[in-house]
Amino acid sequence: MAISITETAASHVARQLAERGRGLGIRVGITTTGCSGMAYVLEYADQLQEGDQVFEAHGVKIVVDPKSLVYIDGTEMDFVKQGLNEGFEFRNPNVKGECGCGESFSV
Q1: Is-contact 56 2, C-beta < 8 A?
Q2: Is the separation of the CB atoms in 96 and 27 below 8 Å?
Q3: What are the phi and psi torsion angles at 45 (to 5°)?
Q4: Is the CB of residue 63 less than 8 Å from the CB of residue 52?
Q5: Residues 6+ apart with CB under 8 A from 23
Q6: pTM for the whole thing?
Q7: CA distances in angstroms from 12 to 55, 84, 95, listed in the order given
Q8: Domain of 67?
Q9: What parts of the chain have a pLDDT lower than 50?
Q10: Dist CA 44 CA 98 (whole Å)
Q11: Cα separation of 44 and 62, whole Å?
Q12: Cα–Cα distance between 7 and 1 in angstroms, integer?
């Protein structure tokens, strides 16, 4: 089981961590919400919790709890800019459907 991050996303995370001045990396998780049932949750990882899996790419650590990893195994995390909008984008091979607004998904 694994999750990967593009070089663009890793650079963005590294800049955010440097501006913040602390943190092990970025924590990626899943919460139940939205019309399709699940949504990604991102937060700074300041410490590891029991059972956390840590993946590293391009000098950035991605921390995932075991319950979330089941739903995001194989996902690639990217950071994209489209016009004035920018944000993280997830390419998750487990997704079976997404809501119309793109905020939630189902597996």
Answers
A1: no
A2: no
A3: -100, 105
A4: yes
A5: 17, 44, 45, 46
A6: 0.85
A7: 16, 16, 25
A8: 4-106
A9: none
A10: 26
A11: 10
A12: 20
Residue 41, pLDDT score: 93
Looking at the 3D structure of the chain, how many domains does it have? 1
Residues 6+ apart with CB under 8 A from 4: 55, 57, 75, 76, 77
Q: In 10 A of CB 76, how many CB atoms?
A: 16
Cα–Cα dist 13/65, whole Å: 19
Instruction: Report the chain's C-alpha Rg in angstroms.
Output: 14
Q: What is the CATH number of the domain that holds 74?
A: 2.60.300.12
Strands 4-5 and 76-82, by their bridges, are parallel
The dihedral of CA 47, 72, 69, 29: what is its sign? positive
Amino acid at 22: R
Q: How far apart are CA 49 and CA 32, in angstroms?
A: 20
Sign of the CA dihedral 42, 47, 50, 55? positive
